[in-house]
Structure formats: structure tokens, C-alpha cells
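Hi V.,

You were right to ask for the full record rather than a summary. Here it is.
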Amino acid sequence: MKFKVSEDVDAPQEMVWARFTDFSGFEEDARGRGAILNRVGNWTQTVQGVEWRGEVTVRGKSRPITAKVTQLVPQELCVVDSRIGGMNCHQEIIFVPLSTTVTRVALMLDLSADTLTARLLLQTMKLARGRVLQKLQGVLARQGNAVEAAYRRQNRS
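Predicted structure:
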């Protein structure tokens, strides 16, 4: 099952890339939602091959989670492959400069299931596809708004 959303961010591509690939904010957000997430190897810079492992509660049950940055093209593309329980997630974030100060961020999320439980969860997501797309769009918009605010502060200084 695929989900695609995009957002135009009023900031240069370099800055948008740097903010969207700084995973510490995403890690904090996941921990705030009850996930246990650890960096494999305590890495400090986002490079191809960095990984996370941990646990997350889905439908009241703790499930293992693994994630790895499998492809990284600076300022253009970031691909993260993860597995939550019996579900595989392939996430691509593409950064396209529309002008020197506007960048389009396109997010594509492809989900597939290996277990019955994961298939049931995917079926539920299919039924709520509109809400799932709204949530993804909201996450992208919030992150984009944060980048835009930082860019405006930087230009005022």
C-alpha cells in the first residue's frame, strides 16, 4: 500500500535537506509517543547505513522495530527502510528545488505485510486512507513550517 504527499517549503534546498535529515527530532517525537528507540553504533551524523532498533506499542502490544537509511543522495534523496513487527516500510523523501528559496519535499511511504496481524493493520489503514494521508501531510507541513521559521529567523539576523 502506497501513500504519497508533498509540501512546498519556503527555504533553500540545502537548509530543508539539513533539517529533514536531522533525525534527532523524529527520535524525540517517537519517544514521546512511547517508543523505545536506540541508535545502532551511537552515530552522530546522518549517513547511508545508519540504523535504529527498539520497540513500539501497536494496538496494545509491544513490537520490535528496526530502521536503516539505505540510500542517501545529499540534498536530493533519503530512503529509510524499516520493519515494525511483521510490517515492512519503505520511505522515500525527495527534495526538489523549485527556486533558490522554495523546495518541494515529496514523501512516499510503501507498506507491506508479512504476518496476519500486519495484514489486518494494513486493511484498517486502507479503510482510513484519507485520515492516514491527512496525518502524513500534517507531519510534513509541521516540519516544513519549522524549517521556514528557522530560515526567516536566519535572514533577520
